[in-house]
Amino acid sequence: MSEQFPQIRPMGDRAILIDFKQIIDKNLLKTVLNYKEILEIELVEEKVEVINTYCSLLIIYSYTIENIYDAVLAVKACINSANIVKNTHSKLYHVPVCYDAEFGMDLDLISKEKNISIPEIIQLHTAPIYTVYFLGFLPGFLYLGGLDEKLKISRKETPRLKVEKGAVGIGENQTGIYPKTSPGGWQIIGNSPLNFFDKNTNPPCVILPGDKVKFYSISKKDYLEILEEVEEEKFQLKSEIYHG
Q1: How does residue 4 score in pLDDT terms, banded at 50, 70 and 90?
Q2: What are all long-range contacts of 71-75, with beta carbons under 8 Å and residues at least 24 apart?
Q3: Any idea where the domains of the chain sit in the sequence?
Q4: Could you read off the pLDDT of 169-192 as tens digits, one per residue?
Q5: Does the domain at residues 90-242 carry the CATH identifier 3.50.50.60?
Q6: Partners of 217 in the beta sheet?
Q7: Class of domain 7-81
Q8: CA–CA separation, 174 and 181 (whole Å)
Q9: CA of 195: how far to CAs of 37, 47, 132, 182, 219, in Å?
């Protein structure tokens, strides 16, 4: 008998985990995010936080669940009665990245390991429309799927102690952006001058799971100009409705 999904089970006494098929897939992500929205609406009185990954949802309660069996049954009822919308529209954001050698400290390493030129790395990285699968390990860190297979590369064996805010990196088959300065083990190829997380805005992260990202290459001069506009809150992030 084949394994049935989703699987719903308690995670301690304050959370419930919903597991879907363990794959990274854009269509599955749409289903996961639809369930997330439904659960946030249906469980609003319980004051829960629902967090998604590629193929799972974690429902975190603000209190200890007295009867975990009843809580799991309530979640199953929400899932079973959910009317999943198949055609959903997301936003496509155009994100500037400077691939200057000052920012792309791992471009040479990738070029040698993959036997492709740095201009080709930039072309391959800016060509796809990426899908935002989820946010973490830092608030506002975008996990983006859709990286060209030619750029697939392992993370660093020894992470850097300091990766600058805005750094754009590659790790395995993903690309991501560091929303703040932190340690990190991704291969760094550039930097974006934008702010990707602001705790004083609602939502604190403008780009959300399910949205799309398209990178475009900018010069160091353009980078500094955009950075100044961002600091003065004058920069307008270009976005559009994505039908796909």
Answers
A1: low
A2: 71/10, 71/16, 72/8, 72/9, 72/10, 72/16, 74/43, 75/8, 75/16, 75/18, 75/39, 75/43
A3: 7-81, 90-242
A4: 999 999 999 999 999 999 999 999
A5: no
A6: 97
A7: alpha beta
A8: 19
A9: 25, 29, 16, 15, 18
What is the structure's pLDDT at 2? 44
Q: How far apart are the first and last CA of the chain?
A: 34
Do the beta carbons of residue 21 and residue 55 sit within 8 Å?
yes
Neighbouring C-beta atoms of residue 203, cutoff 10 Å: 10
> Interhelix angle for 107-114 vs 118-126, to 10°?
100
Place of tokens 């750094």: 167
pLDDT of 87 reads 54
What is each CA distance from 176 to 8, 156, 172, in whole angstroms? 29, 14, 11
**59 and 178 Cβ atoms separated by less than 8 Å:** no
- Which is it for strands 142-145 and 160-163: parallel, antiparallel or unpaired? unpaired
Whole-number pLDDT of residue 66: 87
